Every structure is written in C-alpha cells, then in structure tokens.
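Exercise 3.2. Students should predict the tertiary structure of the chain below and write it as structure tokens, then compare their answer with the key that follows.

Predict this chain's 3D structure.
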Amino acid sequence: MQTYALYDKYECRAEPARKKVHLDAYTVGKSAPSVLILPGGAYNMISDSNEGKPIAEALQERGYNAFVLWYRVGAAARYPAPMFDVARAMQFLQSRASEFGIVPGKIALLGFSAGGHLAAYFGARYALFARKYEGKDYPLRPAALVLSYPVITMGKLTHALSRRRLLGLFSGKREQAAGSVETLITAEYPPTFLWHNKDDQSVDYHNSQMLDDALTKNGVPHELHLFPTGGHGVGLAVGKDAEGWLDEAFTFLQRVMGEV
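Answer key:
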C-alpha cells in the first residue's frame, strides 16, 4: 500500500483541511478495473479499519485496483468539500492511469454509510465538480456504484449526524431536498449495486429502498440486496447474514465494467 496526497502545498495553504485528504493505493501491478472506496463515519471520521483497508485488500485479491479516499470530515465536511475531494481523486487517478494500471472509463465508487451518500450523490451530481487538473480535463462520471448501508436521504429518515456535518446544524428543507439522492436520479445515473441490513439502527434500510424505487422508475440498471439482520458498520459482514455481499457486488461490477 502506498499513500498519495491529493492537494499541493498552495492548495493546502488556501484551505488547511486539505492537508489530511489523501489516497491509499492497493494496486495489482497490471491494467485492471478500479474501485475508489469511500468509507463511512457519519461525515465525522473515516472508518478505515472496517470499511477501508479490508475492503481494498479483498478487491485487490480479486484482481481489481483499489483506492481508499480519506476525504474531509468533521468540521471540514461542510458541503461541497467532500464532493470536491472525490472529484480530485477521480482526476488524480486518471492522470496517473498508466502508473496505477487503471483502465480508462472503468473506475467505480464503493461507499459505506455516509460514504455511501457521498458516492451516491456524486453519481448524480458529478458534473457540478468537473474542472481541469494539471492542465487537462478528466471525466468524472463513475462507471458504477456500490452502496453499502448508505445514507440516501437528507430528510426525515436520514442519519442525523451525517446531515449535521454535511449541511450544518440548521439546514432547511431546501438544502435537505437538494442533498437527498432519491430526488436526483435520472436515466443517466450509473449502474448501482446496493445492500442494507433491515435491522440497521443507525441508517434506516428504507434509505436503500427509496433509492431502489427511484432507480427502477428511471430505468437504471441496479440490484438491491436486503438482509434480515447484521446491524450497521459491518464492513465485509463476516459471520453475518450479508456475508458474501462483496462477491455479489464483484459479479455486478464485472458485468458492468468487464472481466479482470
């Protein structure tokens, strides 16, 4: 594993919180599809120990390049900072595609919990964050999305701390509606795999059902997997009902992005 900073010293001087933004790279040493992992943590922390490193290593074992993004969290997580970090990561990876063995156009996002919201939102609104990097334009649309027990809505069924960190303590209905992914889906949305445990006490599983309904309505290729028990923040879900979700997601990614 190698770590890469995403902002230069001048960018960090302008916004010091950017100093903590970085990528951990788990590459396979050949050209292969790639996954950018966005761990959860309620936009308050990065849950790398269960939703970052183990996932990246599992994908690497399956022949994919995997990258864990440490995006801005805590007081620095106010919209749109984390979204800009995802955009920068996508640009950075493509600018060094030959170095990392990245196949152009085959970068998926895999997000957990609040990181699932970040991935899902970016899938709908990536065009807002497109900009040049190192003098070149790079496409930002993810090839696919994998969403694990994601926060989807910023409305009634949201995760309160995630909303507070992203939108602030006193966000209004207009801001909450704008941040609710289920209202942003079009037919151009990336193919999506999502899963959730029905006994999740942190992020209500109806978040995933709301997105499933919107994807179905708009004809977006997708899969929804619901499991009876397992709770929240379970990562690979070893020993739980959802154990094997990553194999299912990997099969989905192979179908939409191609074989390794």
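Discussion points: The longest strand covers residues 102-112. The chain has one domain: 2-257.
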